[in-house]
Amino acid sequence: MPEEKSQEIDYRKSFYSHRDAMEEVLSKLKKVHVLLEHIDDQYGWSEKPEIHAAFNWMIRSPEEAKSKGEDLLGRHSCDWVLDYESIMTFLNIVGDYVYDSERSIREAMEKVQ
Fold it and tell me: Considering the entire predicted model, what is its pTM?
């Protein structure tokens, strides 16, 4: 009887440990989703950015801007250039969350074996 009780306790500890690990992974993956949505919302355009368009957009005068109208490719390309560091920071954070999630899953799987 005491052995059965011990096995039940071990099973419960294992169960709760795995559940906690999976909750941690889900939390990190939700954060990844939020960061990727932000990047997509801020920088996901139908045209890829072009450095020349960004440069031309930055150097044009206010009069030229009024006469030629809105240059979305130039503006969006400029956003990419100016926000490059932020974009890369977001992607590095995403990579860290994915790496941590993978590690948590591997550790939980090792405990099962």
Answer: 0.70
